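## Example pair
The file below holds two records. Each record gives the amino-acid sequence first, followed by its structure token line.
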Amino acid sequence: MTSTAHTPATVADLTGTWTIDPTHTRIGFVARHAMVTKVRGAFNEFEGTAVVDGDDFARTAVNLTIKATSIDTRNEQRDGHLRSNDFLAMDDHPEITFVSTGVAQTASGLELTGDLTIKGTTNSVTVPFDFEGTATDPFGNLRAGFEGSVVINRKDYSITWNAALETGGVLVSEKITLEFEVSAIKNA
């Protein structure tokens, strides 16, 4: 059996409850290191759902919970530091959450606004997502794909640790790009 890709004719075609497929989704981040390069990482454990209302898209609700301990930058020493009180303080704040407060359609997809909570601090963010289409996989699951990113300031979430460089500047950028490559499966 082959997969078939198609784009829904209307938002109503997306009506229903969707579950993020963690094996085909990436929730990542990018930070500048030493002012000269980028370090990329991801969270490997998360779960999320979206309840889409095709009659009133603004009533769509999205919830995402990320296990902060699942942070992975491919360097265990750096990951340990990111888990510490200097950064994510995972003993006190084991989860990062996002709860939507609004959804708006755009020409290429949607803008998802919601409350992002990191290290016990909540701020509103708006993430623009491109809609990548839908496909029925070989197991009969209807999947929808979305890709988006947003830049946040980590200091807005009480993540303030840094180290000054001899040449000027700091070791870790304040601005962090959050990246979302989402594959969601429509619940039966």
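Second record, same layout:
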Amino acid sequence: MPLAGAGFVAFAIYSGVVFVFATAPETISVGHAPIQPVPFSHRLHAGRLKMDCRYCHNTVDEAAQAAVPPTATCGNCHTPAGADGTAKYAAVLVSSPNLEPVHSSIATGESVDWQRVHDLPDFVYFDHSAHVTRGVSCVSCHGRVDTMDVVTQVEPLSMAFCLDCHRSPDAHIRPLDEVTNLAWQAPGSDTDPHAAALLGAEIRKENDIQPSTNCSTCHR
């Protein structure tokens, strides 16, 4: 009996922890938009300047993690001004106060304290490369970030959300060369609301894409 009681208490605590993390704002709260130390605008960089997502998130098609870019990537365009007030290289906004955390990071080697917008619980395994290399665009989970000045969570990222996509993936599959083109629309979609799903079904059949709904796919 003592062991059974202890086991029940341990299970209750574990269930509570799982519940807390699974229902955290970073996991399910549509509208979650934390304040970042640098006011980075995706609308400007990915939208107006047409920068490919992979320039900053350079592991998204090769690894499970999409990767937060190192400050050196920011420094490619935003090298700080030197003692004489000029930059060593061609640079943008070298003296902007908004970029002070970036310039400080370049000088000290300390990382910028970026805040996560999308954060799955630790007991969930998600592989970005497995999705991106099969034609699932960033838009399916992250929305049109190229229209956002402040990145905001637009999908709940719950288990139900993921399973719905795995069970009916066709509308989320597009040609591989259009995965990071966030404004892409399937040909004919302006007149046929099923055009994206029909094209996705063709691509999925051609590449033998069979999303798994087995629990072990995400819970390992």
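Notes on the second record: Residues 71 and 106 are 6 Å apart (CA to CA). The first helix runs from residue 2 to 22.
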